[in-house]
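DM from R.C. (forwarded with permission)

"hey, sorry to bug you on a friday — could you get me a structure for this? deadline for the figure draft is monday and I only need the backbone to look sensible"
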Amino acid sequence: MFELETDHKPLEAIFQPKSKPCSRIEGWVLRLQSFSFIVKYRKGTGYIADSLSRLVDNSPPEEFDAESTFMVLAIIKSAAIDVTDVEKVVESDSVLKVVKECLQTGQWDHPHAKPFLPFKNELGCVGELLVRGDKLVVPTSLRSRMIDLANEAHPGESVMKRRLRERAWWPGMDKDITQCVALCEECRLEGLPNKPEPMHRRSIPLKPWIDIAIDFLGPMPCASYLLVVIDYYSRYKKVEIMHKITAKETVSRLDRIFTRLGFQRTITLNNAKQFVGVELDSYCRTHGIHLNHSTPYWPQENCLVERQNRSLLKRLQISNSLGRDWQQDLRDYLIMYYTTPHSTTGKTPTELLYGRTIRSKIPALEDIETIPTSTDFRDKDQIAKENGKKN
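My reply, with the result:
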């Protein structure tokens, strides 16, 4: 228990147990509930904690120098640019004079006119001003001021480009804006990106079906879900179609898969309600399986299954747009996936998991050894059966 002295009278009422402050102040009250204290009011004249704000410097102020270099630069940088100012500068700008002459004569062989040559069909004159379409061509001496005006409040590179592209133009304008933002200390402080989380690559397991990842994909248009299981070693995946995704049904489907392929050591999974319940935890402890739950709101940790979900979703969207049987298309996709070398391992998933690549519709040299032999007795048997059928 301690006493909190303050010269702010309303705090006495705010920190009373029966007070009902607004939500913003109530948040601070809740944060202070772990402390036991009493708020007491003291006048500011005798309040020692407020002494520094009451120290006043009575020394005479310095004389204001309106002609100082700093004040002149500040006024120049913040002053707007009028069209009349541009007209005066255009008359003395040697580059724009050459461009205007090239427009009149049609000869663009002068070196100063070379940056303007790709845009000659868009250039024109409005009085003394040079324009490109509906945009004003800014003389060389005013370009830095124009960039400073666009950089007011330091909106960033993309906003500056949009602001200037709307009304003004000169050759290399985007490059000048990029250079300005790179040299502007305020823009650098404001635009420093947050450092990404350090990347930790998962090493490949020693054997297949030791470390797997699971996740749900759905719901599908028919209100069903897909349970996706990926092996980190072989990239082999099993997809189960589920109409109920309760924890009990999830454990039942996983047990069906593990019965065929065996129990693994670890499972990487997110924090879905089906995966954090007692059912899955009890099942895994019984069979010696360790669960690696990913960090909440960080799906990149379970990136392998998330990437496979994206591929599955793409095929299902194609099937739905064509009005086809999505379950048959899913089976066709899986047989294609099982027999295609993976981009990371260079081997097919079935070869790394089973030690052989299963057959597909595409022929291979291994199929020659398994061609059924044609013998005379087979032909005679077939003919006899056909004759018996006719009789």
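R.C.: lifesaver. The CA atoms of residues 253 and 259 lie 10 Å apart.
me: no worries. The longest strand covers residues 211-217.
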